[in-house]
Design goal:
seven-stranded antiparallel beta sheet; single chain; 5 helices; 22% strand; globular; alpha+beta
Length: 250
C-alpha cells in the first residue's frame, strides 16, 4: 500500500482543495455537518493570520453577540489563535444546532458563556490545574456550572478521554505535554486519523489531522486557520510525550 506525504503547500489553489481534506458530508451527523460548514466559513473569512494574545475572548475570525441579549461574547481583532478559533467554531455550531432543533431555550446565558470562555482559554492561573492530564479539568469545567458539576452549560452530552482512536470528527482536542501540562498547549478540532509519509526517508507514521489556527506551516495559510497533521507518538522539544485530551459529543 502506498501512502501520501504531508502536504507542504501553504496556499491551497481553491476552497475545493481545502474541503477535500474534510470527510464527505454524507457521512456526518447533523451536528457534524454544521461543524463542517463553520470550518469552511472560518477558513474563507480569516483576515490577518495567527497572532498569540494572552487574553480571553479574542483570536476569533469575527465578533459574536448573544442571540438573546446582544451582549458581546467574542471580540475579533482580525488575527486568530487556537483557542479563539476552536471556541468560535463550537459556539456557532451550538447556536445553529439548537435553532434547527427548536431548542433555543437551552442556549447558555451570557454569564454562563463568560465562565465557559474563561476555562476554555485557561488565560489566568486560577483556571490552571497542575499534574499530568490536568487540562481535562478546565475542559470539563468549561462545560459545567460552578455549583453543580452534573449541570451542563453546554446543553449536550459529552465524554472526555485520551484515546484518539475513539475520537470522531468535530471533537475538541487539547494537546499538552504529560509533565507540567500547563507549561504549554494547543487547542484544535479533530478531523481524522491516517497514515502519512513524514520524513525524507519515506517512513510512514500514524497521524491525526486537525482544524486549527497556528503559527506552524500546514495546508492553508502559513499563519492562521488551516488543516494540519500531528504525529501520534511525537516527543516535544523538552523530551515529554504529548497527551491529547478529547472532548466529544456522545
Amino acid at each position: 500500500m502506498s501512502y501520501l506525504p504531508i502536504p507542504e503547500t501553504n496556499s491551497p489553489a481553491t476552497i475545493k482543495d481545502f474541503m477535500k481534506l474534510l470527510p464527505p458530508k454524507s457521512t456526518l451527523s447533523d451536528w457534524q455537518k454544521i461543524m463542517y460548514e463553520k470550518m469552511v466559513w472560518q477558513y474563507m473569512n480569516q483576515q490577518e493570520g495567527y497572532k498569540w494574545n494572552e487574553s480571553s475572548g479574542d483570536g476569533c475570525v469575527a465578533s459574536h453577540y448573544h442571540p438573546k441579549t446582544g451582549e458581546r461574547l467574542l471580540n475579533s481583532k482580525k488575527f486568530t489563535y487556537c483557542c479563539g478559533v476552536s471556541l468560535e467554531l463550537w459556539w456557532l455550531s451550538l447556536v445553529e444546532y439548537l435553532n434547527n432543533e427548536n431548542l433555543n431555550e437551552l442556549l447558555p446565558t451570557y454569564s454562563d458563556f463568560k465562565r465557559m470562555r474563561a476555562w476554555w482559554y485557561c488565560y489566568d492561573s486560577k483556571y490552571w490545574t497542575g499534574g499530568a492530564g490536568g487540562v481535562v479539568i478546565p475542559l470539563q469545567n468549561a462545560l459545567t456550572t460552578p455549583q453543580k458539576q452534573s449541570q451542563k452549560i453546554f446543553p449536550l452530552e459529552f465524554q472526555y478521554h485520551t484515546d484518539l482512536y475513539q475520537a470522531e470528527f468535530g471533537a475538541l482536542l487539547q494537546l499538552q505535554p504529560n509533565e507540567n501540562p500547563m507549561s504549554g498547549g494547543h487547542s484544535c478540532v479533530f478531523i481524522g486519523l491516517e497514515k502519512r509519509i513524514w520524513d525524507t526517508n519515506g517512513k510512514v507514521y500514524d497521524c491525526f489531522r486537525v482544524f486549527e489556527s497556528n503559527s506552524n506551516s500546514g495546508y492553508g495559510f502559513s499563519k492562521g486557520v488551516k488543516i494540519n497533521w500531528y504525529w501520534m507518538e511525537k516527543i516535544n522539544q523538552s523530551g515529554f510525550q504529548r497527551v491529547v485530551h478529547v472532548g466529544q459529543l456522545i
